[in-house]
Design goal:
Blueprint (H helix, E strand, L loop, with lengths): L6 H14 L5 H15 L2 H13 L5 H11 L3 H14 L4 H13 L3 H14 L7 H12 L5 H6 L4 H8 L10 H14 L11 H4 L4
Length: about 210
């Protein structure tokens, strides 16, 4: 429902489901509702739910809480929960992406690039694109002229068309336009750092 743009119906259904889940599943239900709020671009509302889920022991809630803090612009605070999440689940692509992005926003592009490379080395297969976007921006920040353009090649064409239709600076060729496109991907993605069907949550946004 959320991916189809029916946000109110999605959360009504979620609330109904939460009332009937067994006690042992309450933490996971809270975590997933928090993740969905994060996808909406509502990090404060997400964080309230995710902090409860963390206290109840939900496995992925720590990383999603870090994502919520990051989306609030609290990049330094985001690092600790993201590190804990990665230590607990090393193949957590979302947490690793948020960590690399946090390091980039903190003015540490070399560390961001190292974190992205470590993440890609940890995966047998990486099917998303946000980590590649952050990696490209880190390379660009370090003066690698090809970094942003090469990263843009890893972004689905439909996503690039979407951002270029909304951000004038992202149109055209060259490193500056490619970097603007990558920045737009992160901004327009709101709290989504997955590259699967979740992309539909934001890709249908009106101009």
């Amino acid at each position: 429902l959320l991916c189809r743009g029916r946000e109110e119906a999605a959360f009504t259904a979620f609330a109904a489901a939460r009332r009937v889940v067994p006690p042992g599943s309450v933490a996971d239900a809270l975590a997933w509702e928090g993740e969905m709020r994060l996808w909406q671009g509502r990090p404060a509302a997400a964080r309230v739910l995710l902090e409860k889920a963390v206290r109840l022991g939900a496995i992925y809630a720590e990383g999603w809480k870090g994502g919520a803090l990051a989306l609030e612009g609290r990049w330094e605070e985001a690092l600790a929960p993201l590190e804990r999440a990665i230590a607990r689940t090393p193949h957590d692509a979302e947490s690793r992406t948020w960590k690399a992005e946090a390091l980039l926003r903190l003015g540490r592009p070399a560390d961001a690039l190292a974190a992205a490379d470590q993440a890609l080395a940890a995966f047998r297969r990486y099917s998303g694109f946000h980590l590649l976007v952050v990696r490209g921006l880190a390379r660009h920040a370090l003066g690698d002229a090809a970094g942003a353009e090469q990263a843009a090649c890893g972004v689905p064409p439909a996503v690039l068309d979407f951002v270029r239709g909304r951000v004038a600076a992202a149109r055209g060729d060259g490193p500056a336009a490619a970097a603007a496109a990558l920045e737009a991907v992160l901004r327009l993605s709101r709290g989504v750092r997955r590259g699967g069907h979740e992309t539909a949550v934001w890709l249908r946004e009106p101009a």
